[in-house]
Amino acid sequence: MTDTTLTLGEVEALAFSTLQGAGAAAHQAAAVARSTRLAERDGIRSHGLMYVPIYAEHLRCGKVLGAAVPTVARPRPAAVQVDAAHGFAHAAIDAGWAQFDAAVREQGVAAMAVSRSYNCGVLGHHAERLAEAGLVGLCFTNAPASMAPIGGTKPVIGTNPFALAVPDGAGHARLVIDQSASAIAKSEIILRARKGELIKPGWALDADGQPTEDAEAALAGSMLPAGGKKGFGMGLMVEIFAAALSGGNLGLEASPFSGPKGGPPGTGQFFVGIDPAAFSGDGFHAAILRLTGAITAQDGARLPGARRAANRLRIEREGVQLDAALMNRIKTA
Q1: Number of C-alpha atoms within 13 angstroms, CB side, residue 155?
Q2: Is 58 a catalytic residue?
Q3: Could you read off the pLDDT of 97-143 as tens digits, one per residue?
């Protein structure tokens, strides 16, 4: 088998058919396939087709329930709750989105909590979805424990990313901040372990709490927080929003996102939407233009999310390069 080039439409179709073949209902498979397409479009390979065999494995072993039907409740005017029922997070988020959007526009600010959930793909895409609708989006998702506290060796929280997206007033995001509490996303270490490559210094510790550049040893040990104690503090903040507030499992209680061991992870997400018109009105967009302009006016400086935007233009034109080994893993998933 040789390497091949896929269009983004073919990426989405391949993901959809593979997930359906592994037992996902159409509404579950479609939401994840769209997320896979967006990840590949933005050059975020670790969350794209590389993850499809893992999703398929988890469908088959019961870590994700492919027939799950999310349920949505709105206990208060500005609060939306979604029970993912141990299906994919993507489908649960879609299920609650209309009520979430309506709540933000009615109240000026609202939140949506998702419980009994799973990996939600690229968190920034959910924040960007809010920005494209003219709203400020702030999103949190927790993950199985993989990061020890400063001075400790036993992981207690996950890589726990947060994302912030800001609208540009013209139907797009002006900037997207999407970062994990760890020095690097765990998926990047998984990718290097699969390829037999070393990781960079400062990414992880081994099981004995010693610095390591061995990807397999890192997966058996602990991720290092970005910025030391500040990164760990950020991870704790995400854990509070995404797990404690949503009703999802703490990272300590969640089964791994990789491998077949354990039942459904049951992690959570928490999204906050803010309508700028309810607060600073047109002054918001003017302030954002001044702020971002002060960044882009400097030679060599770029806004958060600019690299992804550049990848989109190139990949939409050139397509997605898929190596033969990954295609084989997808076809046999």
Answers
A1: 30
A2: no
A3: 999 999 999 999 999 999 999 999 999 999 999 999 999 999 999 99
